[in-house]
Amino acid sequence: MGARATSWGAYKAIAESLRHRVAEGEFRPKSMLPSEAQLVAEYHVSRNTLRRSLSDLEDKGLIRSLPGRGRVVVAQGEDAEHPGAPLLQYQRIAGDLRERIGSGDLLPGAVVPSEAALVELYGVSRGTARQALIELQGAGLIEVKQGKGRFVSLDLAETSEDV
After folding, report:
1. What is the pLDDT of residues 40-71, one digit of tens each?
2. Alpha helices in the chain (DSSP H)
3. What is the C-alpha to C-alpha distance for residues 15 and 67, in angstroms, rounded to an integer?
4. What Å distances lie between residue 35 and 39, 47, 70, 86, CA to CA?
5. Distance between CA atoms of residues 14 and 16, nearest Å
6. Does the pLDDT of residue 113 top 90, yes or no?
7. Is the dihedral of CA 98, 100, 103, 105 positive or negative?
8. Confidence of residue 158 (pLDDT cuts 50, 70, 90)
9. Is 31 left (phi over 0), alpha (psi -120 to 50) or beta?
């Protein structure tokens, strides 16, 4: 990408450029991307525009954020439900929360981490965090109490007592 493009849609062009660079092998799986500062200088955009591009790539499962370290190109793992398909970020978050619920780390009635907390913890977009929570809600593992938040389903307590 040459001189500064218009900010409207610039993030899409940057995301496509980075996606192409990964596909061409410039950034290999498990390698770190250049820092945000380096990419801002390279693409001549604001940090917010760059972050939007990186968020798009994270949502698609191409990269992931390592808090305090940067972003790494994802080695294409497999989705257990669809062998050969890459594991999407929201599926990883939902899987981690399922594991916490199953292990008893999150007991029935416990508050589930908020979208904002998941965004911070996993370095993903709010939409990605929301999708993980929607998946768990659809599976009956969590429930929403309007105005109060999301909680581990109380139905799980009855199920575990019956076992």
Report:
1. 999 999 999 999 999 888 877 788 888 778 89
2. 10-23, 36-43, 47-59, 89-103, 115-122, 126-138, 155-162
3. 20
4. 6, 11, 7, 25
5. 5
6. yes
7. negative
8. low
9. beta
